[in-house]
Amino acid sequence: MIKLVLAIILAGLVREALVAPTIDLQLMNTLRQGHTANILITLKESSGPTLNQIKDLKFQNRGQKLYEAAEALKSFTANSQKNVLQLLSQYQQTNSLKINTFWITNQIGVKGVDLQIVQDLGKFAEISKIEEEFFIAIDSPIDLTVIDNLQDNEEEFQWGVEQIQAPQVWSSGNKGEGIIVGTVDTGVRYTHEALRGNFAGEYGWFDPTVGILTPYDPNGHGTHTTANIVGRARNEGVAPGAQWTSCKGCSMQQCSQIDLISCGHFMACPTLANGSYANCEKAPQVVSNSWSGNQAYLWYYDIIEYYHFVGIIPVFSIGNSGPACGTANSPGDYDNVIGVGATTIDNKLLNFSSVGPAAIASKIKPDVAAPGAKIFSAWHTSDSAYATLSGTSMACPHVAGVVALLLAEHPNMNYNQVKGALQGGSVPTAGTGKDCGKIPEGTYPNHHVGYGRINALNSIRAARAML
């Protein structure tokens, strides 16, 4: 009889352990000291089956697919999250909580929780895990030189745009017209002379942290990267005919995990700047992400998979942690993104550009490389300010710009076709005698520059031959 009772008790304990969410120990230590914290709640139910139900449906156009996919996931997550949200809404009446619901990843971000809230959340069987939000540091500016009140000499600064032969694509009448490029960064000075003419407008901006309704950039990084893609002054942009949209996922010094997830959702289905009236048809065709951190960390993977589902091309910088092998950062080291390394004006790998093999299955990373040393672009300090900066953050926009040129000519290209055209059009770099993962730098693809340094004209030709 005693054995039977013990067996029943043990079975109950095992069952409770199976259903109880995993709670981050460091988070609990923080809360037990009387502090509050920002948390990310992940529900057990996956959105995968919901997407599988609609993946074979025929849609009239991209806009309809974006809308139907978002509506399906929003309906699914509303039901999956309802009990948890009911508890949080009760606490919200007495606590200063900021709650974000995420329909792609089936997660809830909550800022300002205390110990009691987390303990109560720990009783929900539908929760998989509760983690403290993490932050990704923004690298200090490298090779920063600020220039203002320039003379009307536009040609001497933009070596990267020239080297990848973007002007030769422009001469055919293609400057990226009809394409919207999204950036997730520190914001944008939207009144800058290089950017004010092609802002996407009312569905083109979101600030998940502060909620300021017009684009701004206290750092400069986001203004620089955005203008490097679509800037219309002084020949700095690779695709100056494209429009831009931006989400402020990063502050002056770091990027918030919750804000980056918010930005991933905004890019998939933009809203007005106040977060209302979602219009998925306004989603960009390509999203440029000049941020990275950690390795083999798959926290952003589901958002990227959703991008693939609805036809958004993800481009990520690979990081500035080189030159040692195995330094490629996430999400740029994912197998489902275009990870970008940086090169110099003499066509060599930038000495601190992160390199592979990727920590995930030792895959080739970066996928391609692009100009990233002393890149000239718009700056945030005035409407006529410019700056030079170095890093893979500057290389990533070059690739995003070429993607915009490809899509302007072939709007129905999918991710694999775009990636194939980029890789097929890339050119060799000047070797430095290094090898990583037993692949010499002179063999392509390799773990230093992937398939080589991008070339816009070659990629356009590769796409034409492919399609």
TrEMBL record:
<feature type="active site" description="Charge relay system">
    <location>
        <position position="185"/>
    </location>
</feature>
<protein>
    <recommendedName>
        <fullName>Peptidase S8/S53 domain-containing protein</fullName>
    </recommendedName>
</protein>
<feature type="signal peptide">
    <location>
        <begin position="1"/>
        <end position="19"/>
    </location>
</feature>
<keyword id="KW-0732">Signal</keyword>
<feature type="domain" description="Peptidase S8/S53">
    <location>
        <begin position="176"/>
        <end position="426"/>
    </location>
</feature>
<dbReference type="GO" id="GO:0004252">
    <property type="term" value="F:serine-type endopeptidase activity"/>
</dbReference>
<dbReference type="InterPro" id="IPR023828">
    <property type="entry name" value="Peptidase_S8_Ser-AS"/>
</dbReference>
<feature type="active site" description="Charge relay system">
    <location>
        <position position="393"/>
    </location>
</feature>
<keyword id="KW-0720">Serine protease</keyword>
<dbReference type="Pfam" id="PF00082">
    <property type="entry name" value="Peptidase_S8"/>
</dbReference>
<keyword id="KW-0645">Protease</keyword>
<feature type="active site" description="Charge relay system">
    <location>
        <position position="221"/>
    </location>
</feature>
<dbReference type="GO" id="GO:0006508">
    <property type="term" value="P:proteolysis"/>
</dbReference>
<comment type="similarity">
    <text>Belongs to the peptidase S8 family.</text>
</comment>
<keyword id="KW-0378">Hydrolase</keyword>
<dbReference type="InterPro" id="IPR050131">
    <property type="entry name" value="Peptidase_S8_subtilisin-like"/>
</dbReference>
<dbReference type="InterPro" id="IPR000209">
    <property type="entry name" value="Peptidase_S8/S53_dom"/>
</dbReference>
